[in-house]
């Protein structure tokens, strides 16, 4: 065991361009002008996109089927 958890080894550090893109989308200003909490939000958004991308690759890129709660008769 290497101490890494749950397949997060495919993450890559954010580039300045990625930080700025997310900051512009979310807050309408460059990453360098954000306060600490806003920067944390940018990091969390980047992480959630990465996790979603990795999970999508593991499933072959197909969306998860919706579970139908009705029984088929």
Question: Could you characterize the architecture of this molecule?
Answer:
Residues 1-73 are annotated as: Disordered. With 73 residues, the chain is mainly α. The protein has a domain at 14-57. The protein has helices at residues 16-27, 36-58. Helix 1 packs across helix 2 (36-58). The longest helix has 23 residues, at 36-58. The protein is elongated, with a radius of gyration of 17 Å. The mean pLDDT is 77.
Concise description?
It is built from 2 helices and no strands. It is mainly α and 73 residues long. The longest helix has 23 residues, at 36-58.
Topology:
Layout: H1 16-27, H2 36-58
Helix pairs in contact: 1-2
Mean pLDDT: 77
Please tally the β strands and state the result: 0
N-to-C CA distance: 47 Å
Taken as a percent bin, the fraction of beta residues is under 5%
Binned, the helix content reads: 40-55%
Helix and strand sequence: HH
What is the count of DSSP helices, taking H or I runs of 4+ residues? 2
Major pleated sheet: none
What assembly state would you assign to the polypeptide chains in this entry?
single chain
- Which stretches are low in confidence, meaning pLDDT under 50 for 5 or more residues running? none
Give the class from helix and strand content and strand pairing.
mainly alpha
Cα-atom radius of gyration: 17 Å
Shape: elongated
């Amino acid at each position: 065991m290497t101490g890494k958890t749950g397949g997060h080894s495919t993450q890559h550090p954010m580039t300045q361009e990625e930080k700025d893109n997310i900051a512009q989308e979310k807050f309408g200003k460059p990453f360098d002008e954000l306060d600490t909490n806003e920067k944390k939000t940018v990091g969390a958004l980047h992480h959630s996109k990465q996790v979603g991308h990795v999970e999508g690759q593991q499933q072959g890129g197909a969306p998860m089927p919706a579970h139908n709660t009705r029984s088929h008769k």
